[in-house]
């Protein structure tokens, strides 16, 4: 192995998740992760602030990605069309092919209250980024907030359904989930 | 003051929130709170696990309250009607008359990441309780999950709007927010 480890981040991530599954998140230390990956702790801390961040790596880029996608969407598109287009792009560009890894990741997150809170925080940050993207597009505050929340709901519930089954792409399932949300909300109330 | 302090919980809560506002949440200690309230730390810990719980007291009863309300709703009511009825009951029974306190509470929560995460966690627990209530009513899993999320969105966004303005009851604003969510979701997407 040379001085540069172009695949170091992926190797550390795989080693960490394997250890979290084998022996528990709380019980796993950074030296154990780096020993398993055959790398140094110094390399670990070049890539991750701590072991928790291994499970959330890349997600800090989501808000900027959302902002760019929303700025690039044709001005004629209404909020729900923007949501639908954005969710499909993220589903296909970021998650497709990751179902097995995402299942393992979920099983780890479910074991730890701090990880579950971090996961909720991520969805909340995503909602804020979408809301701001709508405000930039000139959408009113209430519509921006509600369309963002609806998008995050479709995305969060869609991911859960995708991980619970073997068929269907995430993009299809998220679309189906958004359609189901529309149907539920369309029910007359009185 | 007698041996029993029937209003101890309220006095401790008020003293704590006043101190959080005056000097910051992190800087406030339990002995400072009890000194302000004229009570002992022993009394404090009979009512609260820690200073954080002062801001969330009573909310541990929400899931059971939700379960009861949903079990009591007429079987003929569809999911959105159940949501609407439940939100109105909670708005009127729990929050009406609390706008000033809730504004102060929000200003404290916004200053601390741990408190913000706890607040998100509470909404997530509420969503789970509503979903379970729907499953008990024989609603399918996807509809139960999505109706619960829609209800929590309307409630969370409604509370924010209620705190941001001086007019209107929470029940009216939550109803208006749910209507707005329905309108946003009804937009044709293609």
UniProtKB/TrEMBL annotation, chains A, B:
<dbReference type="GO" id="GO:0003700">
    <property type="term" value="F:DNA-binding transcription factor activity"/>
</dbReference>
<dbReference type="InterPro" id="IPR050109">
    <property type="entry name" value="HTH-type_TetR-like_transc_reg"/>
</dbReference>
<dbReference type="InterPro" id="IPR009057">
    <property type="entry name" value="Homeodomain-like_sf"/>
</dbReference>
<feature type="DNA-binding region" description="H-T-H motif">
    <location>
        <begin position="29"/>
        <end position="48"/>
    </location>
</feature>
<feature type="domain" description="HTH tetR-type">
    <location>
        <begin position="6"/>
        <end position="66"/>
    </location>
</feature>
<dbReference type="Pfam" id="PF00440">
    <property type="entry name" value="TetR_N"/>
</dbReference>
<dbReference type="Pfam" id="PF17754">
    <property type="entry name" value="TetR_C_14"/>
</dbReference>
<dbReference type="InterPro" id="IPR023772">
    <property type="entry name" value="DNA-bd_HTH_TetR-type_CS"/>
</dbReference>
<protein>
    <submittedName>
        <fullName>TetR family transcriptional regulator</fullName>
    </submittedName>
</protein>
<keyword id="KW-0804">Transcription</keyword>
<dbReference type="InterPro" id="IPR001647">
    <property type="entry name" value="HTH_TetR"/>
</dbReference>
<keyword id="KW-0238">DNA-binding</keyword>
<dbReference type="GO" id="GO:0000976">
    <property type="term" value="F:transcription cis-regulatory region binding"/>
</dbReference>
<keyword id="KW-0805">Transcription regulation</keyword>
<dbReference type="InterPro" id="IPR041347">
    <property type="entry name" value="MftR_C"/>
</dbReference>
């Amino acid at each position: 192995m040379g001085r540069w480890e172009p695949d170091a981040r992926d190797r550390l991530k795989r080693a960490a998740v394997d250890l979290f599954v084998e022996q528990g998140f709380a019980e796993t230390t950074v030296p154990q992760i780096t020993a398993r990956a055959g790398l140094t702790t110094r390399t670990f801390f070049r890539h991750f602030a701590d072991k928790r961040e291994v499970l959330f790596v890349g997600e800090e880029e989501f808000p900027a990605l959302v902002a760019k996608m929303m700025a690039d969407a044709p001005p004629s598109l209404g909020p729900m069309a923007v949501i639908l287009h954005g969710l499909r792009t993220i589903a296909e560009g970021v998650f497709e092919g990751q179902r097995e890894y995402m299942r393992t990741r979920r099983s780890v997150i479910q074991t730890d209250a701090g990880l579950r809170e971090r996961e909720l925080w991520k969805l909340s940050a995503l909602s804020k980024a979408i809301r701001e993207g709508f405000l930039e597009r000139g959408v009113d505050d209430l519509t921006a907030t509600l369309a963002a929340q609806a998008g995050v709901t479709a995305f969060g519930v869609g991911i859960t359904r995708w991980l619970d089954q073997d068929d269907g792409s995430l993009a299809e399932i998220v679309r189906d989930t958004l359609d189901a949300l529309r149907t539920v909300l369309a029910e007359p109330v009185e």
